[in-house]
Amino acid sequence: MSAVFLGVRHHSPACARLVKRTIEELRPAHVLVEGPAEMNARLDELLLGHELPVAVFSHYRDGQRAATSWAPLCDYSPEWVALRAGRAAGAEVRFIDLPAWHPAFAERTNRYADAEVRYAEATERLCRHFAVDSSDALWDRLFEVEPDDGLAARLDAYFALVRGDAEADAGDRAREAYMAAWVRAAVAAAGQGPVLVVTGGFHQPALRALASSGGDRGSAAHGWALGADGWPEVPAPPEEAQAGSFLVPYSFRQLDAFSGYQSGMPSPGYYQQVWESGPRAAADALLRVVVERLRARKFPVSTADLIAARSLAEGLTALRGHPRPARIDVLDGLAGALITDDLDRPLPWTTRGTLTTGDHPAVVEMVAACSGDRVGRLHPATPAPPLVHDVAAQLGRLGLDGGGSSYRLDLTDAADLERSRVLHRLRVLGIPGHGRTAGPEHGIDPVFTERWEPRPSQGREAALVEAGAYGASLAEAAAAALTERTQGVAAGADALAEVLFDAVLCGVGTLSEQLLTELVGRTGELKAVGPLGDVLATALGLWRHDRVFGVARGPLLAAVIDGATERLLWLLEGARGGPGVDLPRLRAVVAVRDAVLHAQELLAASRPAVARIALRISRDADAPIDLRGAAFGMHRALGGSPGASGDRAAAVRAVAAAGTGALGDWLAGLFALARDEVTGEAEGGGDRSGAESLVDVLDSVVRALPDHDFLSGLPALRQAFAFFPPRERERIAGQLLRRRGVRGSSRTLLRTTADPLVIARAGALEENVSRLLSRYGLGAAP
């Protein structure tokens, strides 16, 4: 007995009806379905009384690769109908595709991703031939609105054309060879009974050819050995890997192409109506629901608008030669009747893609009505991964199982600190339910309380099952999730500092050694100075000051501090650039200085060695100007002698010779590192060593500037002095008053009647007017 092949489009009502009718008529001995073969031993679990949509969630993790994927099923999925109808007909039902962890799926997160989209040349030709905008409109035109008579033949012709001479990729070839081995085994085992094979239509031509060739039962020649039961063996993951599959609730929103889903039919709410009631009833329901949604949002829709939309939809149906209304007929009719504005982008159903900000509100509601809001629910007897049970036990033990409750936690209390760690672990795993609205934001934030507020918990059950891929316990799963974030951080990404602080919030002492190793290793790979400075500042602050999380003087932070400091010194000495102030880079220099001053025992580099590096940077003419100022300040802060770093007055005047803007940038770097170079003198009335004070030097340099140079450099100078808080600026202003022998409050020097930049621009305007008047002999007499 040979096999009967049905090529289908995933989540197609027309294909689902064909599968159901074929099984009822054929009464096959075996029904083979594209799906994860590792679930064959758990088909009873899959066929419990779930409320669809649901999905088979699969995960895999080893030392080199982590992968997750979903195989979603809804009421009108041909695969689901094949499983249920096959069981009802007494057939032996099996999944025949490779496990989701197999390299054949590579980075594919959706098992049922449309192969015809990957090999789209034929569908593009067909779209041009039938004058439709997208493959979805083409499918509706050919199959969903046409009568079911001759559907199987039309599908065969369509998929043969789509596959054509296209060369499948290595992953598809491996999958097809494996599925063909199942087909041959089923044909050999079926005796006189028929074998029905239900797969994605793109695979059907290849499977038919592969199954008919090499008809012997020894499938080893094709790369897949048969087990003792006569069926192809299901590949097992490597021993060191963690892999598994579980059922999770799914939603229509997740199934919708407008939300980014890339398999089968879009608009699941609409096609659920097609499956239950047919295209005409689905069209009427869509018109009604869109109007109800728009009216609920105060969008004006009159009865005349509804009549116009219905008339347009019926007219488009007839004009396009559709025997029954297609989805695009109804949507285009609604758009024509309800949207009178000019649109700056194509209507979203003319292509595949997600909605974007700025889409017309009527379009948004049309898409939402098509999508539907159904959410699946698993049968209570469905097995769950160990993490689900661990989380439930911990939440119950700690009194955190009140879904709608708010929590105010005192982090200095041991019990509240444990509650905080559990909530943070759920947060890093992406489990909905609660969100933190207040609490410490970084390593040295002097905040010792947290507040957590309830958040919408839709999807919580599915999120917990999916998080079970990370580990059996909450602590283990959080550690694995943070490790994955660390591995995924691109060199120079700001997220590494956040990962470090999240590790602390989750309870770093209980997390895995792999996470600690990854954090230290990634620190040494960062290429951008600013983000690496944030990592160092976070680690150093926690190492020095933590009194809450138990990580002060800890080995993780010590290793991060040493690695980040060494890497930053190397990056800073190699930095090149010109004018401008890079504030993240200056903060990184501050972090290096603080590490040398307060954590010298952790560093491989000695304090004198760091001071020498700072001196070299300060004298490097190719280094960015702000960095040269910061290095000058760091050298002095680390105890470098004034003679080694150069006289301050000479340094200031040398930089000023390059322009007032350069002086402002250099001072910004200096003040970021060593404000006491100025404030100490201002408070004490001058440089106690007898040398000319820095305030005096700056005052003399600025006073000597021509007005034009002063005005052009004023923004940079203002930015530099913004490093001083108000009280310190008052001290500097007081010294300037004393230098001129003027009595009065220093505050009056800091307060103007208008923005200083506005005053400066007004002065420049006056000067230009005076120059113009003088040029034409119109200047006023003295």
How many DSSP E strands?
Answer: 10
Beta-strand fraction estimate: 5-15%
Q: Averaging pLDDT over every residue, what do you get?
A: 81
Distance between the termini: 116 Å
Uncertain residue segments: 215-222
Structural class: alpha/beta
Largest sheet: 4 strands, parallel
- Report the helical percentage: 40-55%
Quickly count the helices. Answer: 35
Strand order of the largest sheet: 1-6-2-5
CA gyration radius, whole angstroms: 35 Å
Shape: elongated
3D structure, described in words:
By secondary structure, this protein is of the alpha/beta class. It has 35 helices and ten strands. The strands form three sheets. Strands 1-6-2-5 form a four-stranded parallel beta sheet, with helices on both faces. It has a three-stranded antiparallel beta sheet with strand order 4-3-7, covered by helices on one side. The termini are far apart. Mean pLDDT is about 80; it is low at about 215-220. The protein is elongated, with a radius of gyration of 35 Å. Strand 3 and strand 4 form a beta hairpin. It is about 55% helix and about 10% strand.
